[in-house]
Amino acid sequence: MIKNKVINILQNTSDISHYEIGVSVSKEKIVTLTGIVEEWKDVVNIGHLVANVKGVKNVVNDITSKDVNIKEVNNDIEIKATLDKGVKEECDVVIIGAGISGCSIARSLSKYNLNIIVLEKNGDIGEEATKANNGNIHPGFLAKPGTLKAKLNLRGNKLYTQLSKDLDFELKRPGSLVVFHNESDVKKFKVLKFLKKTGLGYFIKSFRQYMKTPGLKWLSAEEVKQKEPNLRGNPLGGFLMTTMGIVEPFEVCYALAENAIANGATFKLNTKVLDIRKTNGAVNEVITNNSVISCETVINCAGVYADEIAKMVDDKFYTIHPRRGAIAIIDKNRKGFLNTPSGVLGRSDRSHNSKGGGASVTPEGNLLWGPTAVETHDKEDKSVEASDLDYILNLGQGVTDQVKKNEIITFFSGIRAADYKEDFIIEASKKVRGFIHVAGIQSPGLAAAPAVGEMVEKIVLKQNRLITKKLNYISTRKRTPIFRDLSRELQDELIKENPNYGRVICRCELITEGEIIDAVNAPIPATSIDAVKRRSRAGMGRCQGGFCGPRVLEIIAKELNIPHTEVTLKGGDSYVLHKESRS
Amino acid sequence: MTKEFTCIVCPVSCSLKVEAENNEILVTGNQCKRGMIFGQNEFTHPMRMLTTTVKIDGKNLHRLPVISTKEIPKDKLKDLVKELYKLTVKGPIKRGDVIVKNISNTGADIIATRTIQ
Amino acid sequence: MKIIDVDVVVIGGGPAGLAAAIEAKKQGTKKVMIIERDTSLGGILQQCIHDGFGLHRFGKQLSGCEYADNYIEELNTYDIEVAYDTIVVEILKDKTVYAMNKTDGIIEIHPKAIILAMGCRERTRSQAFIWGTRPSGVLTAGTVQRYINIEGYLPGKKAVILGSGDIGLIMARRMTLEGIEVLGVYELMDSPGGLSRNIAQCLVDYDIKMHLSTTVIKTHGNSKLTGVTVAKVDSNRNVIKGTEEYIECDLLVLAVGLIPENELSNQLELDIDPLTRGPIVDDQFMTSMEGVFAAGNVVTVFDLVDYVSLTGEIAGAGAAKYLKNELDLKQEYLPIKSGENVSFVVPQKIRLNNLSEELPLYFRVRNKQEKTEVGVFELENKIYKKRHRVVLPPEMIVEKISTKLIGEINTPLVVSVKEV
Question: What is the pLDDT of residue A72?
């Protein structure tokens, strides 16, 4: 009996045994928890404990804690406003959420004769976990064997090579290096090597993921030194995962979305889902703040809000507990200081649930420290605290002690959408026809994204065997010019063709007016300063927009033909300017 | 009566002590004559330069920086600035052009400090 | 691609670049060219509409714009080419300069000498390690100054200023006059960062409070700034628990310091002084690369524009002498070192054969000291001394040493400030 096992573990775990927790188990083996505890961390701990009980499919954690106040969401007034407005639309597939998963799925489905609408509550795509990601295309080695994560990570990593060619985004494969300083670790890695070579690892369950990961190499102390001369101390050896890739996460997300648009998909920004209506056990209508959309399929890629969306169709069988991750970016002066995302064995006290971070590198050559992993009750809590940075610096210090705190040019955080099983949930709803869950997508969600698209494509095809392929499907996409990457001769030609490329707006990153105009007029237009930054890099350098901010604002106002005072930093009411000084 | 001021004439920022004695105002702590004059003024009737911008219908720029030709009473500063905010001048303007002559009878003119097309 | 040969290329048309170009020309250099990224010369002076500039140089109080204009007018009397709206993208070690603009495209410039005059930039919120969210309404003082003075927009209604350097103080007054309520100036250190006269005329005049040993530790609001948390700090600049205070505001103005802009210097791999964060220069303001000079805030952040202009003149004259082969490039350098209570000295090294009559030394003290004497030493031998009633870290000290006194013995010069 699962219920007994759950109660048993709750009663026999110190710190939480004194709480009164209500436990109910559905026939699908979903455990629902209720009760009140003192602190938020207890809510999370209990959720994890229960999720790890053998046989539990997932956990709906309705426990509340005394130290936080989570407001009940009620959309009734907004729903009525939309219904009164009476705007109606129709399509085949609604995708909720334009993060990396939603965009990848949109692209995969745009191959077919389907009318697709992607809904995004923010003013831009990829504005949540996607943009705050470290850009690692993980080799798949660290994922827990047997999980969906593990499977899709390996597959996704493999798909990236072709994807980057098709969609013209930058992918580098510097590999990922783990070094060790202890003799005992040297032995451990010798055993690993032996297991891999002989194939014996396949017989041990916990080694299976490792056995499946391609491109593993063992480096001697000298080889480590040669590859990464700036690592701290004198490592005794290293373990190189050659398939590790790095990308700019937003660039990938944007490329996927743009290609989907080229194939007919529609993206609606600033559009929030308020409710989903069913008829006869199938999805029927999606109500947003703007319109009522009738459709046959709804794909829930709503990230941290995926559980709330699932609840709208009465099929919430998981709870998303937000986990914040902070990242620090180091000045480009350190370009080339590290070539490979690196870690030191036994250094990071990584949470067992989230892939903790280390020292990474961006495709542009900035060093990137992090991310952290901090449980929070607030799905919008994108703050960075002193403790986050201490943790990040400690991670960085483990890899090299030469890079100093004052070389950090920016830090920011994002929220991982973790469920309590800490695995991806990708499946057709068993209760509601036409509803597909794509939830719990956290690290390695970026690496897995192409495989997530592929998997959902299969689910949709299975549900509707009459779907036909588009004859005029466009499989590739070309990005607009990136001035800084061109040779001087080509730069000169480009300026002669279009003089806007001759005016540099962002000096730190060498971004031209032409590129910013391209961003503002892109298929998914950049309408805020941050959106321009994500597309063009303007403001990403060491001065963080101090010089170019006012100029970017001016270009946005001009291109969109809006007053300066209506330009925002990041959508919503994040206006930069309050009013004109004389009027 | 003794008052203490920081001299604002130059970056040296001398600390001044000003005393009134038998109709005479004594300044100490200054290192130059201008400091003495500042100290005396500050004691009896503090004066300040006025700098701000006024609206201009220019080709590229929309604000014209201006300055007073001499110091004006400190307590009038805020009101005078508000008066200037009601103005809109037409370009082109040359540096030194008088924008307001003898503003509020202070004897100071408000002049442009930048040439704007 | 347009290819240009010049004698001296000056990178940046702010006060340092203007003075350097004029001086190089005056000293007989044939072809001088300024590369300016903006559409007008003068650099950041154009947004400094307040008065207080040029007392040293012109003997009267000018606004920043007027100070710049004086130089621009003088420049216009010479045949000096200015490339506007043009940015330097790269300098190669053979001194080839790549610049670009809308009309010419990529320009390849072959100068015989280069003067770096790129100025400085502001430290950002990340570099001040302010925690919390990242809403709009957090801007550097220079950006706010540009919005208000040049573009004519107000970026908020209620402002908190972090940093009591001169820009922070000037903006406190400026915002008040524009109708923005300034709720206070917060300073991490236990003494103000700006000049006393600016505290008097920018804060005291307008009843704005300065809070020393207090800093902004956190921003609030996910979209638009809704407030900040300030807290007191102890002598080690650590936050004192329990002193946190929430202030509702929609604008946080950061005046947390300036950093020399040395991206191009780094491309040339010039020797950088970790104390000034600018290139190491000699008595001609020549850097570690022969024929490459630096002037103004690229070298170190000066507090008066007058000094910036002076260094521009030195570098301009130096470049002219270099072109005329009048500089001894072989003589061993004598280093100038920071002694007691001195945090840095510019120039960092000199060649005795190249000195003119006077050698100006620019330096700052580490700590406030009263009743002091500046001394310049060759070993035990005091070759120069001057009394100062008070010395403060924010106020740069300039001493002009008669060069006749230097070089009796071949030993480094040491600049010290001691109590007497």
Answer: 82
